[in-house]
């Protein structure tokens, strides 16, 4: 049928929608509120421990401290090894109960990725979004490098051209900053999914009975897709139970809780409870895999 003469399409301005994912940053539940608090405390600990010399190695001046006292290099290195293996040991048991919680709650690198996502999202309509993201990731990379270097070097070497390690310290700072920036800017959470050895280990060993996000089939879902959009790991929280744990399944979930937060936020105006829940909650009706659902209803695929 011909188009009526009195009707015309409005002339929309062409817009390029940036490839951003919704970055959720305002906590809705107590869970995500505590996640932010723990992440802030961990970052503070990374700064304070070497600053207070509770554990600090200074290879540039051949000085080493443990619990505020100067020690030999061997003792300080032993403390580092104990701390390192202790972290693995705690992580082994923690993982059995709470999966990849370490990635979502503890890892400062994950926090930087998250901050990058938030900036990317907040500036999604800003014409200088790309530039602002480059700048912020550069600042994050420099800050992270300085924090890490402060555990092993004296940062004042950077402003002391007379020091024997002046050049080396700058080379380390530049090298690590470039590496950190490339990972932050080009990979984001893909690094956590595909390269981080800790993350890969946790993906493999995470058990189905540990803490995880489940979809309650007894509750309504408005199919808004927000849970998928908000997930930093590019997972589909509603379908995680039917996926290979290491390939889109619960093994890759970092338990950030953002999907549950947005689901609650979305369902609140409907006056309905959120279908996404923690598996520790009660009265959850698990969603059956598609083939089982077909068989029980007698319908043919
Ligand atoms: S599935 Fe949910 S809890 Fe897991 S990483 Fe994605 S948003 Fe976070
Ligand atoms: S956010 Fe909640 S309501 Fe929206 S699609 Fe996901 S599970 Fe369904």
Spatial extent as radius of gyration:
24 Å
Low-confidence stretches: 15-20, 296-301
Number of strands: 5
Mean pLDDT: 85
End-to-end separation: 38 Å
Q: Numbering strands along the chain, what is their spatial order in the largest sheet?
A: 1-2-3
Strand proportion: 5-15%
- Which series of helices and strands comes N to C? HEEEHHHHHHHEHHEH
Tally the helices: 11
Give the helix proportion (percent range): 40-55%
- Ligand kinds: iron/sulfur cluster
Shape field: globular
Q: Largest sheet, if any?
A: 3 strands, antiparallel
Tally of individual domains? 2
| Structural class by sheet pairing and helices | mainly alpha
Transmembrane segments: 34-52, 64-85, 97-119, 131-153, 165-184
GO molecular function, one term: 4 iron, 4 sulfur cluster binding
GO cellular component, one term: plasma membrane
Domain 4Fe-4S ferredoxin-type: 211-241
């Amino acid at each position: 049928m011909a188009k009526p003469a009195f009707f015309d399409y409005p002339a929309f301005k062409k817009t390029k929608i940036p490839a951003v994912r919704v970055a959720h940053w305002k906590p809705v539940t107590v869970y995500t509120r505590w996640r932010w608090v723990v992440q802030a405390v961990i970052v503070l600990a990374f700064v304070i421990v070497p600053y207070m010399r509770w554990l600090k190695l200074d290879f540039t001046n051949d000085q080493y401290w443990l619990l505020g006292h100067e020690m030999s290099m061997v003792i300080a290195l032993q403390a580092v090894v104990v701390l390192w293996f202790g972290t693995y040991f705690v992580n082994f048991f923690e993982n059995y109960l709470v999966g990849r919680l370490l990635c979502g709650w503890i890892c400062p690198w994950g926090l930087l990725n998250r901050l990058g996502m938030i900036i990317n999202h907040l500036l999604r309509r800003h014409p200088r979004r790309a530039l602002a993201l480059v700048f912020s990731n550069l600042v994050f990379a420099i800050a992270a490098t300085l924090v890490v270097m402060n555990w092993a070097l004296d940062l004042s070497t950077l402003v002391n051209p007379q020091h024997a390690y002046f050049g080396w310290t700058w080379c380390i700072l530049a090298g690590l900053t470039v590496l950190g920036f490339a990972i932050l800017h080009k990979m984001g959470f893909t690094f956590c999914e595909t390269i981080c050895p800790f993350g890969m280990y946790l993906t493999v060993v995470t058990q189905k009975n540990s803490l995880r996000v489940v979809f309650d089939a007894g509750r309504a879902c408005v199919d808004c897709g927000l849970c998928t959009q908000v997930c930093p790991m590019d997972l589909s929280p509603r379908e995680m139970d039917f996926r290979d744990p290491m390939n889109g399944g619960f093994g890759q979930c970092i338990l950030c809780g953002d999907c549950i937060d947005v689901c609650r936020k979305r369902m609140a105006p409907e006056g309905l409870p959120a279908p996404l829940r923690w598996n520790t909650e009660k009265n959850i009706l698990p969603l059956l895999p598609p083939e089982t659902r077909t068989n029980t209803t007698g319908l043919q695929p």
